[in-house]
């Protein structure tokens, strides 16, 4: 199994007419909560072989907080993690990467409802909208590496940040 | 929504010929991890209106640790939480109790694979074996109160104890 963590960006400045959605930054509270989540992940000795992030500022800032906490040595932007991006593009990337093996641990930082949709597709093949993912919340999936992971994965973690604080 | 927490008993003495399954106690490590889980639930201000527990010793001890941490004022044994028990009996109990309303928070302490099976039935109507629930692990569900919760509930929490320690 590859361990895949899907992490939602922290609390960002609200949408408004004076700022483009792509550059809405995390609020101070959003940074603080994300740092606590990062700290807890560090305490339980999680290390990501790579973090892929949506290029949107609020996601990239979230991923950078995780990196600065020592959770990974490798952080890259991944365009399909933008809102509405394609799960299949990520699966194709994974299948052709050197992270497609049973000891790898990968984090994706992105947006709702895409993250819960992706998780649901991995778990049971379609989207039902039944996973509640708060900002700075985390989904943890075990993806099989010997068969197609769609509809064949396991869920081992779903948590809002409040349990980490 | 009623918040329903499904909590698996902590680590117990292994099965062996010199002890009946019903009276296998928690180990010291099992008690310790369960206490840490209870402490964390207390820190995030969770309070259960009632804890129902399987009558088996390892479950009852787990429920008692939760009660002693101040997480509930009310603890009762509930026979259908024994291994292989009936989800419908619990639903019937709930529908006829004064806990069937949108502000209630209920915890059930029991066994695997029943807890993940019950959760999966609440979430999508049947069992697929895709939720990983460790000992002293927790599943958190939102159950709608205006319609039948089978296949209509949401998952907001799934965590092994290690994130609480």
TrEMBL record, chains A, B:
Tell me the SUPFAM superfamilies matching this sequence.
Phosphoglycerate mutase-like
Q: Does the keyword Hydrolase apply?
A: yes
Q: Which InterPro entries match?
A: His_Pase_superF_clade-1, His_PPase_superfam, Mito_Ser/Thr_phosphatase, SixA
Residues recorded as binding substrate, renumbered to this chain, are 58
CDD domains on file? HP_PGM_like
UniProt cross-references to NCBIfam families, sorted A to Z = sixA
Q: What is this protein called?
A: Phosphohistidine phosphatase SixA
Give the species: Crocosphaera subtropica (strain ATCC 51142 / BH68)
């Amino acid at each position: 199994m590859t361990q895949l963590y899907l992490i939602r960006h922290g609390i960002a400045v609200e949408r408004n007419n004076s700022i483009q959605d792509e550059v809405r930054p995390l609020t101070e509270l959003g940074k603080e909560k994300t740092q606590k989540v990062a700290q807890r992940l560090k305490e339980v000795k999680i290390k990501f072989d790579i973090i892929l992030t949506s290029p949107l500022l609020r996601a990239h800032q979230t991923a950078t907080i995780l990196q600065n906490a020592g959770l990974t040595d490798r952080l890259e932007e991944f365009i399909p993690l933008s809102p509405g991006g394609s799960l299949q593009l990520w699966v194709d990337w994974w299948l052709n990467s050197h992270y497609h093996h049973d000891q790898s641990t990968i984090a994706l930082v992105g947006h709702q409802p895409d993250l819960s949709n992706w998780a649901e597709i991995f778990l049971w093949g379609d989207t039902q909208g039944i996973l509640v993912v708060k900002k700075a919340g985390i989904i943890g999936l075990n993806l099989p590496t010997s068969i197609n992971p769609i509809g064949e994965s396991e869920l081992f973690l779903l948590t809002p940040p409040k349990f980490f604080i």
